[in-house]
Amino acid sequence: MAESGEVVIVFDTTLRDGEQAARVNLNTGEKVQVARQLERLKVDVIEAGFPASSPGDFDAVRVVAAEVRSPVIAGLARTKERDIITAGEALRDAARARIHTFIATSPIHMEYKLKMTGSEVLKEVESAVRLARGITSDVEFSAEDASRSDINFLVDVFTLAIESGASTINIPDTVGYAMPLEFGEFCGTIINRVNKPGVVWSVHCHNDLGLGVANSLSAVRAGARQVECTINGLGERAGNASMEEIVMSLRTRTDHFGADTRIDTTKFYSTSKLVSNLTGVLVQPNKAVVGINAFAHEAGIHQHGMLCNRATYEIMTPESVGAPGTDLHLGKHSGRHAFNEKVENLGYNLTKEQSERAFEYFKVLCDKKKEVSDGDIEAFITDRVIDAIPEKNYELKDFAVTVASGGKPTASITLVHLGREITEASIGNGPVDAAYRAIRKILSFEPELLEFHIRATSELADAVGEAHVILRYKDVRAQGRGASTDIIEATIRAYVEAVNRLYHTAAAREVKI
Q1: Which residues of 245-263 are buried (b: 16+ CB within 10 A; e: fewer)?
Q2: CATH: 3.10.450.50, 3.40.720.10, 3.20.20.70, 3.30.420.40. Which one for 6-279?
Q3: What CATH class does 395-508 carry?
Q4: pLDDT, tens digit, for every residue of 123-145?
Q5: pTM (two decimals)
Q6: 57-77: string of b/e by CB count within 10 Å (b at 16+)?
């Protein structure tokens, strides 16, 4: 953090708003991995989830609150009594807990979604904040869709929330509607009119028009001292304001903002990769700060300038965000210390037991290929080590796939279910299709394949293949990952993992399979 200037609090909502993004579904073990890395990043507040939304979310918030001690752990709650009490229960073991309660305040939301009058919303705000304040001393209140709300009504709402016990007040641009200059003036006017010393003013900006970061920074200029954001800009629809972009803007231009954060920016690159790997949401190459092209220079003029002085075309260095510099190559002669250091640098925080299991897989992989890349390591850690499904209904025992010129591909799959081996075979349009048809014969239900993709973990010819699938059954979705030097095995593992997650998620939601 810069030595001079005011501190901006970083409120990360990757595990709540980020996880609400379409096709993203993290289990508790994966959320803990992300939370531990956010702690290493020195995030001030982690919004771990929405406890009342599902038993799975409640459990994730509870575990994160118990295991991650340095940041404030927040749980989201509507202004409903049940939501607030449930959030308090999930946060019971937190070293520092925050209940974040919200209600919509825009005319369109009040009329069509809430079906409430302004007076009714005010009563709800007062009762909710007072209830939350009785559970914890740290209460945040948000006015959903604030940027489309009447400013006079917002002043009344925020004044009442503060008088009822809220110490942080959030002004969200929920649908990404605001323009930067407009939003800065809007926030500044509210802060000045409410005029309550000691209150932390916050903003939560969505990116529907690509202005989430710009609006957040404009609000900081107007007096906001907390920004709500996500790693890689993950979030609903077009996403949230990107944490790495906000933080690096403040760090690079402290002369302009007069403010900075406590974030350890050297952990950005590894955190970005961790979130991308666990969510299955790829980072675009030209993504600011953490994209693989963020510090790449191809044009001759640019390269010449860089050779003369890096500052000609780099306003921040790769090292400042933890982007790759020197590379530590690992192989079969590498020991546990070097391996564990590599894993930590990649952003993973493993238990002693998980580290031992990861090292065993690493040694097996070293026997299969000469050079093990970072991507290979990340793939088998996410696939084999931090898979935290409490019970696996099905486990892959064996498989055989035959592909012959002029003939239909054939697959034979053996899964273990409740201690019993079940084998089925099928033909298909390709080896993967044949394998998936065989698996569906074993299952007691037929899930729908929504998404499938596979990628190599490096540019090497013997790279590990990493498969990612999304399945749906009824209204339950689940993702699965698989990694192997055998590309077919990777796709089969991904499908089986997704099936197990479907069972687990369906059970949590009381959906019968």
Answers
A1: bbbbbbbeebeebebbbeb
A2: 3.20.20.70
A3: alpha beta
A4: 999 999 999 999 999 999 999 99
A5: 0.79
A6: bbbbbbbbbbebeebbbbbbb
